[in-house]
Amino acid sequence: MSAFPHALTVNIPLPSPRLASILSESLAVDEELSPHVHRTFETDDSTLVVRYSATTARMLRVSTNGVFESIKTLLETFQELDVDVLEKDHDA
Amino acid sequence: MSPTSTSPPRRFIALGLEGSANKLGVGLIAHFSDNSPAQILSNLRDTFISPPGEGFLPKDTAKHHRAWIVPLIKRTLKESGVKVKDIDVICYTKGPGMGAPLQSVAVVARTLSKLWDKPIVGVNHCVGHIEMGREITGAQNPVVLYVSGGNTQVIAYAEQKYRIFGEALDIAVGNCLDRFARTLNIPNDPAPGYNIEQLAKSGKVLLELPYTVKGMDCSFSGILAYIDQLATQLAPSSDADSTTKSKQERKPLLDPATNNPITPADLCFSLQETVFGMLVEITERAMAHVGSSQVLIVGGVGCNERLQEMMGEMARERGGSVYATDERFCIDNGIMIAHAGLLAWRTGFETKFEDTTCTQRFRTDEVHVAWRD
User: Fold this and answer.
1) Above 70 in pLDDT, residue B329?
2) Does A78 touch chain B (CB under 8 A)?
3) What is the pLDDT of residue A3?
4) Helix (H, G, I), strand (E, B), or coil: what is residue A52?
5) Is residue B356 within 8 Å of residue B95, measured between CB atoms?
């Protein structure tokens, strides 16, 4: 692991284990682009645990910033487009 | 089984998500089991437009798509009145296209597939254009010219594949036009190609430009380099910034016949006539090869009326005709992805979740066109 000395673990609490799993599975399909970065997704009950390790601090910053942008969009997707939300909108 | 002639046909609905370039499209389409025409339930689009003189970069484009995709899907559902339970399949553009923008859309498609518990289908962008063109125009078995900012291909259908007969070897014709628009600082709103088309209408002088057809294929980077060079020789425009004086006097480019200075409109006109002439030639070559007289033009450059006119003249000389769609369908959109994806899904095709990736390169002939004979 000394080849990837720069590491960061991000824990993101979600409202439910279902949403944590969906977030994890949707993000995990895309492979990490850079060979200088290792990344894993796990869920711990309702928490998404993202572990990054990179060869340089810069690569760590770039990759974690990137995943945050995707996470933000998916959180918005949960908030606006989940089945119960749409049902409530429809009835409103 | 209890089919009766009076029972209503089964309706299939697909959601389509497109974002391979700077257009973000969300579409909702319905197919019917009795094969009546497809019904467009919603076709929304938001385009990321960069300032004049600039193209759109992957990172900014992806940022635009991420900002707009949820509002656009929400609006689609609201305006169409379609409920989640009515949707059969989620379709998204797998490729080809720009990496980050493609991914920004695919990740939402995956999430919806899990949230709503629906199957998901990855669609080839080019096949989306072709199938939508066929559906809208009703063209039976045309040679297809697919021309856009990212693609230039001449395609003919044979034995469950869209086969590429000819293509641009370097850059797409739309890319050539878009980059020339940047050279001339033409606005990108609504699209650089559209503005070149309008400017070309007031062009009068046809300059000789490199004409690069190579058998069934063509090439545009040479003509772009040449015309970019010519653009530097244009006489300064009346509203040029007077504080920037060139160090030496430049002899402006003149029309050899009249000695009038060549205008940007003349360059746009000459560029269009030349590149469109090349496209007509390689399309005609393919038509002669397969024995077809019909041409279907799809892709953003297909909106160009001059291209449609030139292609129409050639097709009529061969006893045929040209088919084209309007900007709702020739410009990238989500409905074509929904349509092509639904056609595939109805044959039993589905993309496994772990395979719902995107790819910048995805050849048109890699797709098994199972929905046709």
Assistant:
1) yes
2) yes
3) 84
4) strand
5) no
What tokens were used for B120? 């998901």
Point out the annotated binding site of B for a divalent metal cation. 125, 129, 146, 332
Does any CB of chain B come closer than 8 Å to the CB of residue A22?
yes
Query: Exposed, middle or buried: residue B82 (CB in 10 Å: 0-12, 13-18, 19+)?
Result: middle
- Using CA of residue B323, residue B327, residue B328, residue B334, what is the dihedral sign? positive
Could you state, in order of their start, the residue ranges of all structural domains in chain A? 6-81
Q: Which CATH superfamily is domain A6-81 in?
A: Alpha-D-phosphohexomutase, C-terminal domain (3.30.310.50)
pLDDT, residue B283, reads: 98
**Measured distance CA(B189)–CA(B115) in Å, rounded:** 36
> In percent, how much of chain B has pLDDT > 70?
95
For chain B, the 3-state helix, strand and coil shares in percent, each to the nearest 5, are 40, 20, 40
User: What is the least distance, in Å, from the CA of A29 to any CA of chain B?
Assistant: 6
What pLDDT does residue B248 have? 42
The stretch B7-33 carries a mean pLDDT of 96
Does the beta carbon of A74 lie under 8 angstroms from any beta carbon of chain B?
Answer: yes
pLDDT band at residue B8 using 50, 70 and 90 as cut-offs: confident
Each residue of A36-79: pLDDT tens digit? Answer: 999 999 999 999 999 999 999 999 999 999 999 999 999 999 99
For residues B111 and B168, membership in a common domain is answered with no
**How close is the nearest chain A Cα to the Cα of B46, in Å?**
17
Domain hosting residue B121, numbered range: 9-133+331-366
